[in-house]
Amino acid sequence: MKRILLLLALLIFTISCGDVEKKSNKNDDLNNEVHRTWWKEAVIYQIYPRSFKDTDGDGIGDLKGIIEKLDYIESLGVNMVWLNPIYSSPNADNGYDISNYREIMDEFGTMEDFDLMLREMHKRDIKFVMDVVVNHSSDEHRWFQESRKSRDNPYRDYYHWWPAEKGKPNYRYSLFDPKGEAWKYDSITDAYYLHYFSQKQPDLNWENPKVRQEVYDIMKFWAEKGVDGFRLDAFQFVSKDTSFPPLPEGYEKEVIKYYGMGPNLHKYLKELNKEVLSQYDVFAVSEGAGSTFEDAHSLVDADRNELQMAYHFEGMDVGNSLDGYKLSEFKEVYTKWDSAFAEKGWLSIFLANHDVPRMVSKFGNDSPEFRKASSKMLNTFILSMRGTPYCYYGDELGMTNIGFENIEQYQDIVAKNGYEKTLNEGGDISEYMARLKFLSRDNGRTPMQWNDSEHAGFTDGTPWLPVNDNYKTVNVEAEEKDPNSCLNYFRKMVDLRMNYPVLVYGDYKLLFPDHKQVYAYTRELEGQKMLVLLNFSEQTANLELPDNLTLNKPLINNLEELVQEGSQIELQAYQAVIFDLK
Ligand code: GLC
User: Fold this and answer.
1) The pLDDT value given to residue 124
2) Region 170-193 average pLDDT
3) Per the database entry, which stretches of residues form a coiled coil (predicted)?
């Protein structure tokens, strides 16, 4: 499990660019000292469509449900929405196994629903990011069905095949396979095909120019419809060393180096940028940032004209231990990534998504006493750092891990296959279950909690994944009424972010690096300076501010009181405060 999570966390990156003049990013202000752009100023709300709102009673969220909730989304103040994949899919991996890239998944609705959703978003000045999953397709995609028919099928080279007469291919680890093998033997043509993820997700062969053209055409199809951005799933894996040499000892520590970030990645990125990204006013964000800062820069530095944004996993990985994490490590990771990107390139900032547990359960404290304060504090962090914030649905309410006990309760392919693998290998199943309870992807996928009616108002049917028991108190309707709720605090914090460019573009400087409880930093831009103080602990924390910092009144405070005397500040458990500095 550890390995699976490590590998998952190490995943992916992506695209754009070209040697042609860029037409995208029309709002760029290149004369400004900081390179200002709409996608840097955005606050993105990520929706797991399966779990947001069901309107037809099948227990699965749908596009009509998202349309119904657009006023709510607008009320958050966010101005961009990213949806996990909504294409036709047999759902081996909840939509990350696509069988038709130009169709909407039946459970989610129709293309008409999509068009309406996009129009309604744009009416509200909300932009839309499409998830693009092209490292692999579903094995039920027509390309693969053809490809496996015969060795001379025109689609054969759309995938990576290894003829059995050459012997068994060199071992590759599969992230999602119960046996851990990424090569699957197929008797029809007496050959193995490659699947870095599950057997139902064969890897596409990007060496084949036809495959690349198919991808560009698909992206153009969606760009023509008016989508504003692309999130490139597992993209750093698309370029591989296709001689598939034996893996050296210790390869696990550098998975990306041996599995992805291959020799042709930048060639593909430039091509994709030229063909698609430069032709529309869109941005692309890559899942993953390679394994070094150099890799990350090679993907997103503006002068390379490849991708616009990436996300690294190092910050999120800090919280992967069941014994908690050290704030010093958390600060170190975020500070080092910020300084590496201070001059060039752009990253995302997030503490949760559909592949990890709930933010407050992992990085905060989900006990009844501290849930509210700590989730507000974490949202203060995300929304006051440099980088585009990605806020995961339900985190604005302080939704928590569901913490299943039995394997039968899990729906996620990673959880189920990992269980089987642990059994097959005679591993410690109780340790596996304990890790799963905390780290499982299903923790972050439970239905959105709208109100205190049955199934939290998510569905009239039976939800595909149970609703968290705390929905009676943690829900939108209840939080709307409470001025001190997580929800209302989130709105204030988004508003602050939107109104103060210093929070988007300002220089970041870490203060009190050795403080064990407090993460403190300043942001500074063109004469404006802010101080962010975050108590990451359940104990009171004391700080003496340096003489050169003179505080104005706090711009935001997640608790009602603030204990301050001159330069002495006493932060309560999980208190978060942002000051404007004189
Ligand atoms: C990415 C997605 C994850 C998916 C995997 C395979 O990591 O975020 O949910 O399972 O790619 O497509």
Assistant:
1) 98
2) 95
3) none
Catalytic residue among 203, 233, 355, 479: 233
Domain with CATH 3.90.400.10 in the chain: 142-194
Task: Assign a CATH topology to domain 7-12+38-135+210-403+442-497.
Answer: TIM Barrel (3.20.20)
Ligand 1 centre and the CA of 582: distance in Å?
45
- Per residue in 329-388, pLDDT (tens digit) is 999 999 999 999 999 999 999 999 999 999 999 999 999 999 999 999 999 999 999 999
Asked if 233 and 211 touch (Cβ cutoff 8 Å), the reply is no
Cα–Cα distance measured from residue 558 to residue 488, given in angstroms and rounded to the nearest whole number: 10
CATH annotation of 142-194: 3.90.400.10
Handedness of CA 149, 193, 185, 9 (dihedral sign): negative
Nearest atom in ligand 1 to 414's CA: 10
- Taking only Cα atoms into account, the Rg of the chain, rounded to an integer number of angstroms, comes to 23
Q: What angle (nearest 5°) sits at the alpha carbon of residue 406, between those of residues 404 and 409?
A: 65
Q: What is the DSSP string of 484-515?
A: TSHHHHHHHHHHHHHH-HHHHH-EEEEE-TT-
Q: Is 355 in the pocket of ligand 1 (CB under 6 A)?
A: yes
Tokens 């293309």 found at = 111
Task: Band the pLDDT of 432: cuts 50, 70, 90.
Answer: very high
What's the average model confidence in pLDDT over 140-144?
98
Residues of the chain with CATH 3.20.20.80: 7-12+38-135+210-403+442-497
Alpha-carbon gap, residue 161 to 192, rounded angstroms: 6
Q: By alpha-carbon position, which residue is closest to atom 4 of ligand 1?
A: 96
